[in-house]
Specification:
By secondary structure, the protein is mostly helical. The protein has helices at 2-23, 27-55, 60-81, 91-104, 130-148, 156-174, 179-195, 200-219, 222-232, 243-255, 280-313, 317-342, 359-377; strands spanning 111-114, 117-123, 126-128. It has a three-stranded antiparallel beta sheet with strand order 1-2-3, covered by helices on one side. Helix 4 runs antiparallel to helix 5 (130-148) and helix 5 packs antiparallel against helix 12 (317-342).
Length: 390
Amino acid sequence: MRQSVKDTVASIENTRAVTKKEYGFLAIPILVVLVAAFGVLMVYSASFYAAETQLGDRFYFMKKQLIGFILGIVAMVGAGMFPYGKLKKLKWPALIVSVVLLAAVFIPGLGVENYGATRWLRLGPITIQPSEIAKFGFILFTAAYVSVKPERMKTFLGVLPVLGAGGAICLLVILEPNMSVTMVIGLLMLAMLFLSGVKLRHFLIILIPAILAVPVLIAIEPYRLKRLYAFLDPWSSPQGEGYQLIQSLYALGNGGWLGTGLFNSMQKYRYLPFAESDFILSVIGEEFGLVGIIFLFCVFGAIIFFGIKTASNCKDLFGFLLSSGITAVFAIQIVINAFVVSGAIPPTGLPLPLISAGNTSLIVTMAAMGILWNISRGGKAGLSGKIKKN
């Protein structure tokens, strides 16, 4: 009788453990949806004046972001339900599609030029940004490639396919030109190589040329040199290259501790360029103050924490690298965007994940977070999609 009671109690505890394991990381999709919904609100706040004066519709950018938000939720739920182990078979299609889309922006009639850069691709009635897709295509390719034969990452020859994939993507992105996304993908590639167990001497052989390439890439483009000078002394060119950084600092300074209140930013009234996209964090700082930014970054930190915990708890190498890569690129973009708007690094165009205007970034990032949620549940790693039992 006692043994029967013990078995019943043990069964209940095991059921609770499985349930906790399966649903314990609902925090990931909940936090992602909350941040993305906040992004829709902030896109409206940052853009309604420019949208009304330039396009005659104050809700123009908000409606686009709302569509992306809804599609992003669908993509996240779909990715969360799909057995992520099956993604391993898509490593080559993911890489090939990424490279083809990046190359297609240079085809006349397909590429869309804006502000001197060809970073968008027109596909019928929609416009996409291939570099946002390529980041996650590279993560998938690397995670799948390494997980098949992990031991080959101990040789420099075995590392070459990952270097070749990352290098090709970086080359196509820098030709757009897009220095910021090139930096993100470069840092992501280094992170993925490190996590894949590359030997230290091989890692240094890769790292040192990558570091040396940064000043060269800056020096060969006059506009990048101007941005560097503006970073060092924005007041030397207050109406030129230094204008954007100065207006961003004005916004952050005007926000103070508690902010001016929602919809009350002054810098969005045509003072701050790209207020709804690359510099939306400045508007958030102005309207919600330092306290609001700290709270937002605590939420970002929670998502990153759950991503790291997901990777550390993962039982298979593919899931580990996939969740690590998704978490890493999310964190890298947040840090670079925050550094740019605060003047810690030279100005460069990079969206704040889940918040900045841009449907490609929003949908792809939410889909990637769906994969992260899937892995965190620990139940769909196998090709069969069945939940593994302890």
